[in-house]
Amino acid sequence: MTADTQTLDQDAVSAYLREHLPGFERLTGVTKFQGGQSNPTFLLETPAHNYVLRRKPPGVLLKSAHAVDREYRVQSALADTDVPVAKMHLLCEDDSVIGSAFYIMDHVPGRNFNLPSMEGVSVEDRGRIIDEMNRVLAALHEVDIDAVGLADYGPEGNYFERQVGRWSKQYKASETEDIPAMNHLMEALVEQRPEDDGQRTLVHGDYRLDNMIFDADKPECRAVLDWELSTIGHPFADLAAVIMQWQMPAGPEGRGMAGLDRAALGLPSDEAFIAAYCERRGLPEIEHFGYYLAFNFFRMAAIIQGVLKRALDGNASNPERAMKVGKYVPIFAQHGADALKR
Asked: Key word Transferase present in the record (predicted)?
């Protein structure tokens, strides 16, 4: 049977929220967000307040994937830090309510930019928005994980070692064709791994402009979204993830900046963004950046391979888009192989 990721049992949700969410009266509307491929996400409208419900997809899932409980925990922990997040309300781990675990958070109104070119935004504000993205990233990596109760949010040891191992296994579990560049990356990322420099911070795991909500009028971030891949790890993985995204083709499919006249658009170069981040954190120039970039291309290839596999199995959150992004697996893999050479 094909799992239904497009609808919610509104009666079941309403009954649960009336019992567990203070101030909840009734639903006046439910709308599924079309963005994102992993955890189906819904806008819940009520007479007094709007919420967001984010759930695990139904069906058989890869082990450790779709961890909504971790998303809920990390955003709760960041509530009083310099990292803007939505207010968390409740976590339901009882699959019998709607068929899978879910959590409820505030709906954060504002602007969301699917493309870094930010059409319709002034040249000056584009630069300010990207600088705010840089500020939030640096703030994320300066969070005192002991003080916010996240010291145990990820295992000890070399982050890249365990991540390459994890995503290699995930990729193999969802592999649908032989891609030589991915085979090469899985070996080379082990062989060329830099020595651990001791940095151990909270990392988002999918830090991109389109995973952020900005104020409707100001270049100010109001919430960072989609924390499914967050863990305790190495901050340069997040930084390189931003640069990886920007190196993809411009437009709705690649959502990158390749070929754009960044200066004319008010957008920084890769080097300027990295320098601003290092200045904010008091860091010297970053060595082995090609490795961190290659790692991100590899991990993204593994992620979208999983998206493709879910589409083929009939339980993707957005099946049509899943099939489209699945075509990027060999492209990301080749970009990763090329980054390792630089």
From this structure: yes
